[in-house]
């Protein structure tokens, strides 16, 4: 194998791929990144069998071939180089990297056991959905924090995607909270795909966000019952899907609320952070709303630290309420919302609160109250 490329492209590709390698799996090659030159194009690949990532980068010349090396070693070496052109060549079970002022030899691993990527399989009559990369990232980021990091119940440690006739519906829940975000798509035969369900593992959803968060343009999504493929001009990602049924939640969404508050998202974050200083071991804070007094107060109290409150300027209407919420769960949601006004709705202190962004009706968040 031999190829020339720019250091910046190679470094970025290795960084994207390396985190998706399998560090503790039985096959040593799964802990490596694969560099493949094919038809004079350079591809960097990695997988942990849960998610597979391939990144293509601009290259010059070259001789076809494939080699597996430590991604951590390669990334560390590239980080110390200035912006320059790099020549890569394999010889005697080693990868040689040369620049005008440096050279390095990295030990290689046999590639015989490296799994076949979905791109290389002869299939794909799967339905295709086309979405904007920023929309995909924002949708996943809007809900993934509400899923459980535990694998005990797969349906709770995943992000659900329902392919409706007009939208992709992203949702996640750990039973204490639930987030839903909808985005438009194009390209698929909507009559054939409507109602299909995909459960993306929690960790894979986070990786997809990381991989595509700085991408523009469109992403093609190929759906099958076992996997989803995401690709654009340079990145190809395959994620395994979980089995199971996502909890039905439509019946728990409040159709109306007895107390409503409109407040600045940034002001509420500041107030919650102040109250969290005095929250207890359960991260419990209180929200007290008295519409007739135009009062919206956020407070925290802990026996071993003291107590504190912060008042927030807000528009309120309906019945007075005093509700206890988990501050972390509240901040998780507020941090992903864009600046602007948000609406909080309540039906007493014992039922779920609902949060929406005033400028985005495609999102909502339910959070269960804590016992007083």
Please sum up the structure shown.
With 372 residues, this protein is an alpha+beta fold. The chain contains 7 helices and 26 strands.
What class, by secondary structure content?
alpha+beta
Which ranges are low-confidence, i.e. pLDDT below 50, for 5 or more consecutive residues?
none
CATH class of the largest domain: Alpha Beta
Largest sheet: number of strands, sense, barrel closure: 13 strands, antiparallel
Task: Describe the overall structure.
With about 375 residues, the chain is α+β, with helices and mostly antiparallel strands. It folds into 3 domains: about 1-115, Roll (DNA Polymerase III, Chain A, domain 2), CATH 3.10.150; about 125-240, DNA Polymerase III, Chain A, domain 2; about 255-365, DNA Polymerase III, subunit A, domain 2 (DNA Polymerase III, Chain A, domain 2, Roll). It contains 7 helices and 26 strands. It has helices spanning about 5-20, 70-80, 135-145, 190-195, 200-210, 265-275, 325-335; strands at about 1-5, 30-40, 40-45, 50-55, 60-65, 65-70, 85-90, 95-100, 100-110, 130, 160-165, 165-175, 175-185, 195-200, 220-225, 225-230, 235-240, 260-265, 285-290, 295-300, 305-310, 315-320, 320-325, 340-345, 355, 360-365. It has a 13-stranded antiparallel beta sheet. It has a 9-stranded antiparallel beta sheet with strand order 14-11-12-13-26-25-24-18-22. Strand 7 (about 85-90) and strand 8 form a beta hairpin. Helix 1 (about 5-20) runs antiparallel to helix 2 (about 70-80), helix 3 runs antiparallel to helix 5 and helix 6 packs antiparallel against helix 7. The N and C termini lie far apart (about 65 Å). The model has no long low-confidence stretch (mean pLDDT about 90).
